[in-house]
Amino acid sequence: MNHLIIAGIGVVAGALTGLIGASGVMLVVPAFVMLGIAASDAIGASLFIDAVASLVVAWTYYQNKNLVLRDGIWISVGAVVGAQVGSLLSPLVPEVGLSSSFSVFLLVSGVAFWFKGSHSLIKLDGRDEDAEQGDDGDPAFLVRLRAHPAASGLCLGLLVGVISGLLGAGGGIMILLILLFVMRFTLHEGIGTSTLIMAFTAASGAAGHALSSNLPMRPALFGAAGTVVGGRLAARYANRVDERVLSKVVAVLFVALGVAMLLIERRTGA
Predict the structure, then answer these.
(1) Domain boundaries of the chain, sorted by first residue
(2) Do the Cβ atoms of 20 and 188 come closer than 8 Å?
């Protein structure tokens, strides 16, 4: 096995995490499977790499004052528990087709960021403009969720954690969307905070896979080494980019990742 290739995969995965808060699952799992690693082991390695990348990225955002826990801590607690459940269920889920729903989710998220993100994520005194105007015009269920941040955060985090443990993702994108559109974080704050939550979620999932002997340490360590470099560089760049520009970048990359995952699944399934 070529460890340089694995480290290179880690660099790219770390860059995605640092730039848009995305989990390395989109790249690591299919790439590791193509290198001959079993899908369950690839998922375990992906979670380990996600944990390392997320810690590095979260630290960089913290240094730029773009990491705030507040209501996000409740999502973290629920996600850690859910990741354990997902890790236990992962071996029972068929390998074929696991990424299809996530690919569609990325495409929808990309479109949402392109059309809505640029005007709803304008930073105003540390919060977004819509937050200053109250909840007028928002769906009733969002108003209720914001009224009970602890309960809603735990429930949403539990759901994210289960999906993360199943797919080998740290849940960064799903957590990011919750922070932006439910908790009303700015985009920079959302990416920084979601990566910290993702670090705990991914570490919990990786521990679950390790307990079930589905965590190959050598590829995980080489991939993690690469992700430190990619994550740090990308996060430093992202913190210098304007919110509106970053929202467009996030949208384009989400769509590109969704299309790539669909193409990879079609090719490997053929």
Answers:
(1) 3-269
(2) no
